[in-house]
Amino acid sequence: MAAGCDGGDSVQVFAASSVTDVLPAIAERYREQHPDVDFEFSFSGSQTLASQIEEGAPADVYISANGVQAQRLVSAGLAAQSMVIGENVLVVAVRDDAPWRTVEELAASRPRVAVGAADVPVGALTETALGLLAPAVAGPLRQGIVTHDPNVRVVLSRVELGEADAAFVYSTDLAASRDVRAIALPPQLPRNQYVAALVTNGNDSPNAVAAGFVAFLRSEQAERILSAAGFLVAGDAAR
Amino acid sequence: MMGAIRTGMRRLWVVPSVAFALFFILPLAGLLLRALTDGDVGAELGSRTMWIALRLSVFTATLTLALAVALGTPLAYMLARSRSRLARVAIALLDLPLVLPPAVAGIALLTVFGRRGYLGEPLDGLGLSLSFTTAAVVMAQLFVAAPYYVRSAYAGLAATDPGFEGVAYTLGLSRWRTFRSVTLPLVWPALAGGAVLCWARALGELGATLLFAGSFPGRTQTMPLAIIEELGSVPAGLAGAVSISVVLVAVALVLMLALHRFTATAGPYR
């Protein structure tokens, strides 16, 4: 395995922007039991990371904010053992001091709205959500769109900076953000799945250290950290 | 004897020159090759979004250049002819936007002109909002790219001997005639070089534009923003981004050559 060559047990983790805060915490917990393992993180959009891995970037673990990209790498023989580690939902972020409690109230005041670009996962889900809302609600929200941003962190920053009144983001993005709260969207909206995969780069013998970490992501310890950050985890159903 | 040394020297220069040139040529060739194999340049050429982004990019970068020349030339002239300490501080500050990461430049613009900015908030109260408009795109580009022009114009003007201007004045030439027939021909290469740099930097601007102006097709989505969006898109991803990039590189190349030709022939030498 290529990454094994840099000496020591170093694991290169390529992960979606939305796990930027929670993943290092999980790795830290893992290191309590495996102090000889070092982690290096690279956070970006899931699609961008998948492209980098296809270009031969030295990743050991890939965590996607969407099942599609992980599946694409598995189909291409570049990754294996993909599994869901958590889920989140799409919400509308507004500032704490904003007067709105529901999307109906929000729509009635003709807000400025930030969304993800339609061909980026968060934007596609936003489009689905707007389709589920009543036309009288979806109409003003659509008309209020001022920007189609390339990733979800940028979308959220619009509300944090006060440039937009509302932003369609994942529930977990709000965990790290102060002064911002969520307005719920229709419950029939599909959840968004986070998938972890072991990157093999077409190699037969996968990095055993990386495999250990991927397995750990499904442990109760990891799930507790994910859950605290607002992710819905498999254990939730059992508890 | 000298000739032999010169030939030897020339050979010595060739190796790093060619290697360095290849460092730039190979990635561009790689981009083109990848676009032709994986990407679909034909589909991009047929894409309305791409043409809208391209038109906006060329329009805003050209407007940025016009503003940089109109406002930056007097500033550069003043700085070059001033001996005050204030001018020296201003010259140092001129380099600051070049060091600033563009995203930081975008945030800096927001603190002043954003909806909650020091000037933006009162303006917003008057119903005038700058963020997410084409004006914001030009402001972001101007902030990031104009220093390249002003810096180059200043260097050119500072290197010309003000004595020539003095002689022209004693011969009875007006200030404008002096600038036009004495100063301008001397600094023309510096102005033209700075202009090309400024226009090119404006065309490639991404970070400041994204933060200050957002990304809205036809209004604020320039080519670099369209490319970054494509990079994160499913399923196009890298292949789509590479295809649009090739179009941007091709258009930039043609316009740069035209600009170079224009500045070389339309100079005040005639």
Walk me through what this model shows.
The complex is a heterodimer of chains A (239) and B (270). Chain A is an alpha/beta fold and 239 residues long. Chain A has two domains: 2-87 and 192-238, D-Maltodextrin-Binding Protein, domain 2, CATH 3.40.190.10; 90-183, D-Maltodextrin-Binding Protein, domain 2 (3-Layer(aba) Sandwich), CATH 3.40.190.10. Chain A contains ten helices and ten strands. In chain A, strands 2-1-3-10-4 form a five-stranded mixed β-sheet, with helices on both faces. In chain A, strand 1 (9-16), helix 1 (22-33) and strand 2 form a beta-alpha-beta unit. In chain A, helix 1 (22-33) packs antiparallel against helix 9 (220-228) and helix 2 (46-54) runs parallel beside helix 3 (67-75). Chain A is elongated. Chain B is mostly helical. Chain B has one domain (30-265): Orthogonal Bundle (MetI-like fold). Chain B has helices at 2-37, 41-45, 48-81, 85-94, 96-99, 102-113, 120-125, 134-159, 162-170, 175-204, 207-213, 223-231, 237-265. The longest helix of chain B has 36 residues, at 2-37. Chain B is globular and about 70 Å long. Chain B starts with a helix and ends in a 5-residue tail after the last helix. The model of chain B has no long low-confidence stretch (mean pLDDT 88). Chain A binds chain B through residues 45-48, 50-51, 54-55, 66, 68-69, 72, 112, 114, 117, 119-121, 124, 145-151, 154, 157-158, 161-163, and chain B through 110, 114-116, 131-132, 210-211, 214-217, 220-221, 225, 228-238.
